[in-house]
Sequence to fold (459 residues):
Amino acid sequence: MISPQKYIIAIPSYKRADTLNKKTLNLLKSSDINIKEKVYIFVADETEYKIYKEILNENDFNSLIIVKPTLKAQRNFILDYFPLDSSIMFLDDDLMEVMTGYKDKETKEIITKNILSLNRVFEVGFEECKRTNSKLFGYYPVYNKFFMSNTISYNLKYIVGACYGIINHKEKQYVYTDDKEDFERSIKCFMNDGKVVRFNYISFKTNYYTEPGGLQETRTLETINKGAEYIVQTYPEFSKIKIKKNGKYEIKLIQPKLVSPPIILTIQRDFNFLNLHHSLLKKLNETTISTLETLRKDNKPSRSTLLLDNPDHTKFKGIKDRPRTMTIGYGRIRTIGYGPFSQNNKHKDLLDLIIQYGKMILPSEFVFTTITINKNLKCKLHKDKGNFGVSALTTLGDYEKGGLFISDKLYSTNNTILMFDGTKLPHQTEDFTGDRFSLIYYKQNLKYIPEEFIYRGTK
Fold:
């Protein structure tokens, strides 16, 4: 990775050669930054290239590069233009001043600081990213000392596109919308790294959306709202829309709830457990569990089939080798809403054994209403849907390997219980040989479930 001292500056610009010359380049020239070495300017086409070439001083930049006019195209092109792991400062072309200040929480006094070295401001940002294993840093989006604070935050925060630093990971940081693209970048980097870095006592003075020209000149209320809709549809866990009086959509970022790492519990194999384990395994082998169907009655793929690592049933040797699944207990049924599952009465003895088994091995604080039984099912990487909170998974049978990958880490399921939030943590089955049964205990929405169908562990 390029060191902080070797960062480069990328300035996307459109129809604003005079603005760039008078503002951002002037700001950089008045600083301690070697602009001839560091500054790369990206313009829309040949015509723009000639105009910028005439107006700008060639000693004020390293290279002038032709891209495309749209904002997302320029941002993504710049990531592709520079090597992987490059340290890139993205600056808008109309930055006028570096601003610092905040209101002291205790004294209520307004504190201001002088920026002695703009070069050092940028270097510190990349150093903090390296220290915290993050790839994106930025500054408070609007200069307002009453809301700024003497802090650096690492949770999900809006990193405004006017000025930010990024350690180049290319496709992981591509944006796919022109409007609200900085929201998408903030979310994607947080999803990839678990954090973004924001210096809340530094801001930049700029005329957002008011300067003539610029990459935002095609912005309309329709494009702004379309960009906001794209963000909340693509990243619903991290964003929601707030509608202003003028009809303009604004994005509000949602702080994700902290996800606890998987808990591994060892099963105590005493006499009572061994008896119950033997009875349950025998009943599982005797029970005819349905094979997965490729299509539902409405000709849409079933969710279970979509999760299959190999959904092509023709590749299995025979019907006995096909993966099978069954859900019992009480929960949401697609056609009728909440209710007891149809397999309960058909497999009452198995249901009783599985509930008894769950009560025996699960901790007393664990509540479950629903159990999914899988036989020889190898799931591809996915997150669960419809579960509420932590699930508990254990496996039985005569098999080898067959653990569970959770967020790229392999966990054994042999003689253990894995407790984790499958709606938040992506997981998939390790390859295995032999006959492997997995039991997943979990709860659905308790307010729709009668008390007699709510079970608890006893450990």
